[in-house]
């Protein structure tokens, strides 16, 4: 399918914004670490991976903008907080604790890999082509997160304890990552967002558990209840407004500027 | 959270630029290839905890600012090398005739290639074969 039926535009925008907003906010939070990561090599690698997340967000905003006649910059920086669709996990301040950052990245990358794999099989071909490109890069980021998590869990007792503490502390907001976006069922039945080989929460928690298992760790991950509404429905945490003010500062000076 | 040790103790700028390896990290040498079939060229080194991490660091450090088709990382410890002080690499007796210099062939070669006879010969040769 080369063009999208009108009835699917809104659900697809909801879905793509949830991915793009996760990546924009995560990439912005991670960019705070430029110059501060625990070793020099990681500093450069982590900053480069943050740029990947923001680049992914940019191409998804561009895709949405073409669907709705909007502008990517406005989508990224010009919406009201409740119009964002990111999960609350990415908004939280990491307290400049490296274990928190890795746990957050690890949880997010596993979900992104699943979401992009599904989109790469979309019957809406322009979307499948974009998702396939993003997926190839996403796997690098996932390898990075998995590598660090396994390494630290298998390292000294202090490293293991700190990594475990962060994984446990972020487990609840991480489980909310899989909150479905509005109208996603229509996209699934139309093949625009083909169903996965199972339920998303089960796949995500299974993938997370597999890496942790390698390090001898079991985490109790439970899906939020069916009535749960969170980040995907626009519920923002307190940390969000301050972050948006910061990243949108330049945009707001001259919203119509062409860069 | 402390800053990386590398920043806390910057190296003496007049000395060779090497830093002590931290913890259980090892040093890997990195080679990049810019085009398939072309040689892999030494790019620099990274410190990493294991092979996979070394490849990831190398990719992010050396593979992104230029179009790069392949990266090699090699543990520095795997490289067998000569010693600056102990090992003789170059010879001590005068064998300067081995240097590829002093032969002014460039100009002669260009003159030969542009000769009328040669150009004609080449054209004939191509005609005969194809």
Short description:
Chain A is mainly α and 259 residues long.
How would you explain this protein's 3D organization?
The complex is a heterodimer of chains A (259) and B (130). Chain A has 259 residues and is mainly α. Chain A contains twelve helices and no strands. In chain A, α1 packs antiparallel against α2 (40-68), α1 packs antiparallel against α5 and α5 (98-120) crosses α10. The radius of gyration of chain A is 18 Å and the shape is globular. The mean pLDDT of chain A is 95. The longest helix of chain B is centred in the last third of the chain and has 14 residues, at 116-129. The model of chain B is unreliable at 1-6 (pLDDT under 50). Helices cover 30% and strands 17% of the residues of chain B. Chain B has four helices and three strands, in the order αββαβαα. Chain B is an alpha+beta fold and 130 residues long. The chains are: A mainly alpha (259), B alpha+beta (130).
Defining traits:
heterodimer, A: 0% strand, B: 130 residues, alpha+beta, 3 strands, disordered N terminus
Please provide the count of β strands of chain A: 0
What is the tally of beta strands of chain B?
Answer: 3
Q: What separation lies between the terminal Cα atoms of chain B? A: 72 Å
Approximate helicity band of chain A: 55-70%
Radius of gyration over C-alpha positions of chain A, nearest whole angstrom: 18 Å
From the spread of the alpha carbons, the general shape of chain A counts as globular
- Stretches of chain B where pLDDT is under 50 for at least 5 consecutive residues are 1-6
Q: How far apart lie the N and C ends of chain A?
A: 33 Å
Largest interface: A-B, 21 and 21 residues
* Unreliable runs of chain A: none
Compute the number of helices of chain B.
4
Largest sheet of chain B, order of strands side by side? Answer: 2-1-3
